Amino acid sequence: MIFIEDKQMVIPGDVLADKEYQSGRGTFKEDDKICSSLVGLVAIRDKKISVIPLQSKYIPKRGDVVIGEITDIRFSMWNLNINSPYSGILPASDVFGKEKRDLNKAFNVGDVLFLRVVDVDEVKKVKLGLKGRGLGKFRDGILIYITPTKVPRLIGKKGSMINMIKDETKCEVVVGQNGVVWVKGDPSMERVAEKVINMIEEQAHTSGLTDRVRNMLFELLGKEIPEKEEKPEETQEATDEEEENGEDLIQ
Amino acid sequence: MGVTIIPEIIRESLNNLVKNGERSDDRSFDDYRDIYLETGVISKAEGSARVKIGKTQIMVGAKPQIGEPFSDTPNVGVLMTNSELIPMASPDFEPGPPDERSVELARVTDRCMREAGVVDLEKLCIIEGKKVWMIFLDLHIIDYDGNLMDAAVLGSMAALMDTKIQEAKVVDDEVVIDPEKKVPLPIKEKALMCTFAKIGGELIVDPSLEEEQVMDARISIGMRADGSICAMQKGGMQPLTKDEILKAVERTGEITKKLMEHLPQNNQ
Predict the structure, then answer these.
(1) Residue spans of alpha helices (H) in chain A
(2) For FRET with A37, which of A56, A177, B110, B208 sits at 20 to 30 Å CA-CA?
(3) End-to-end alpha-carbon separation of chain A, Å?
(4) For A91, which DSSP code?
(5) Is B10–A140 a contact, with Cβ atoms under 8 angstroms apart?
(6) Phi, psi for B153 (deg, rounded to 5)
(7) A141 with B9: Cβ contact below 8 A
């Protein structure tokens, strides 16, 4: 038996379903009943029930791309804040190879980098790397922080949401899986993008978001709102695990 | 006190915004965030207030007690301010003994209240040299999103106006308090504080946390209702020019007038 609907908002302790269902992330089992352990939205996949939290912290995972800022320079590595309870390290060898050079000549404290999580060990020591297309240091632009669970929503189905923002504002937008977003373009357009992204974060749990984002974009840009195209989209976006592939960055 | 590293990108983008005459939350340089003020929120305190400026939130409680006056001022009551930066308010706040910011906040608030002569302390004397009312103001920072000082002073002002003390009489050299009869504190002046942050060469009012983190300097000016200055505090690493300070004082006059409207009007 199931007591809730897909995408329904639940609070900790809410009973979600009976034993014929499987308990997924954000839930726990008590007396053969599956209960929520978080404030969030229910996601039902086949027989598996999980709860997607409304607010969360980023837990590093191998292969993720993240945006981090350098907080410290050590003997052979940089320390980075990756908007997470765990800090990351970037070994000097990853940047210089075998060569020996001054670390602070490459990156200094306060620099913001786009990185890949190379490895996370059992004590959550996060090793980062810069090998890959588009990874490296950001210059100029603005940073926006959102809750990491809302990153898939910001990107949208096959990047639909993020591409719309990019096209309309003519900004470069890079999204890290840790909830940090970098935007660069014309300063007034950066502000438009910031407002839209903050709106998406606020309303990520509601449906029909893409249309509202489009309307908001047009309104902020002072454009005519075109007639709505008859396209019933937007059914499963909240759970799309789209990956942002690092857009072309100026190194 | 933990040093937070601010990414260069944020520092630059905020600086550029201010240079273009804008702020990240669309306010003008003289605008406060939304202010919310409520008094009488703590039933066990004789006076209390909860103040919110944007997401910054402070609870203020006033607790009167009978005690001995200081020997150099035998006929004057006592007003003392304490502040607590609880770890719940910000990841930067640590439990333990009060740090620099906590002491600064309490002292600046205290100075603003006392130097302005907000409470007529002489009326708080019961027996000269022996018994006076002591008012303890406690500031509890619930949420920290920048500009604690203005919020603390606004909250303290409201809490003091809300405070009622029991009537104390002297019978045969003994103090007798009448728990039934309560009188409001003798308030004779109103004072508020206005804080400016210097970013990108401009002075902006009511800095948010983000703005406080990138500011070059800060100046807080306490002002009485008639426009005279009662307290001033400078913070941050960079200097301020004479012109900047004079301009800040001028702007404070207009801004505190608007802030006064938030205080409860019913007083006496």
Answers:
(1) 92-96, 103-106, 151-155, 160-169, 187-202, 209-221
(2) A177
(3) 55
(4) E
(5) no
(6) -70, -45
(7) yes
Rounded to 5 degrees, φ, ψ at B211 are -70, -35
Q: How far apart are CA A236 and CA A203, in angstroms?
A: 15
* pLDDT score of B3: 61
- Fold of the domain built from segment(s) B8-260: Ribosomal Protein S5; domain 2 (3.30.230)
Which residue spans within B3-127 are E strands per DSSP?
A: 35-39, 47-53, 56-67, 78-85, 125-127
The kind and range of the H/E element at A89 are: strand A88-91
Mutate to test the interface with A, among B3, B12, B13 (most CBs of A within 10 A): B13
pTM of the model: 0.82
Residue among A112, A187, A191 minimizing CB distance to B7: A112
Q: Is the ipTM here above 0.85?
A: no
Q: Does the structure show a pLDDT above 70 at B119? A: yes
Residue ranges per structural domain of chain B: 8-260
Domains defined along chain A, listed by start: 9-53 (2.40.50.100), 65-137 (2.40.50.140), 142-239 (3.30.1370.10)
Distances (CA, A) of B147 to B53, B62, B74, B193, B226: 8, 21, 36, 10, 23
Whether B119 and B113 have beta carbons less than 8 Å apart is answered as yes
With beta carbons less than 8 A apart as the criterion, state whether B203 and B217 touch: no
Residue A103 near residue A114, CB atoms below 8 Å: no
Preferred mutation among A180, A191, A198 to probe B, highest tally of B CBs within 10 A: A191
Name the closest residue on chain B to residue A82, using Cα atoms: B7
pLDDT tens digits for range B78-93 = 999 999 999 999 988 9
